[in-house]
Amino acid sequence: MKRSPKFSKEAREYIKERMHEHGEMTTEEAVDLITPHLLVDPRELIHSEALRAVQRIMRNIRSENGSRLCFNLKNEDDSRYVNIETTMSIPSLNRVEKQLNNQFIGLSKSIVRVDKRRRFIQAMTGQLGMAGSPGDDKE
User: Fold this and answer.
1) pLDDT at position 57, please?
2) Could you tell me if residue 64 is inside a domain?
3) Residue 37's closest CA among 10, 63, 58?
4) pTM for the whole thing?
């Protein structure tokens, strides 16, 4: 099934601008912003919901120690799940490893950005000595 845009490019840019301006937004606020701009095909809606269900199921296949076992690999024309404990395909394992390394690099960069922003806010508000550990600011 061919994927079509769910909403206009303008709507996407509007949401990105609002997030940039406000810094934070609840999920419900984001949903409320995008809902009037949705272009929904009922067949695609059913397919999307089924796809999300499959993704949740696969994401929750875990080893005995709780680590994730199934990963999605996308090609130009298809997408497949790989169970890293049972597959016999070295190329698939190599692709999963590359994907995980890329995610790790991206997450590491985000952690650095969070730390820089926290230090900036602390410097601006004079809270350098009063800072707790990440996650201490229960909202």
Assistant:
1) 96
2) yes
3) 10
4) 0.64
- Look at residue 111 in the predicted model and tell me its pLDDT: 97
CA 93, CA 90: separation in Å to the nearest integer?
A: 5
19 inside domain: no
Pairing of strands 70-74, 79-83: antiparallel
Q: Which domain, by its residues, includes 86?
A: 59-126
pLDDT of residue 139: 46
Question: For the residues of the chain, what is the DSSP string, one character each?
Answer: -----SS-HHHHHHHHHHHHHHS---HHHHHHHHGGG----HHHHHHHHHHHHHHHHHHT-B-TTS-B-EEEEE-SS-EEEEETTT---HHHHHHHHHHHHHHHHHHHHHHHHHHHHHHHHHHHHT-GGG---TT----
Domain membership of residue 42 (yes or no) is no
| Residue 90 belongs to a domain | yes
Q: What is the mean pLDDT of each run of 10 residues along the chain (139 residues)?
A: 64 86 87 82 87 94 95 88 95 95 96 96 77 52
Count of domains observed in the chain: 1
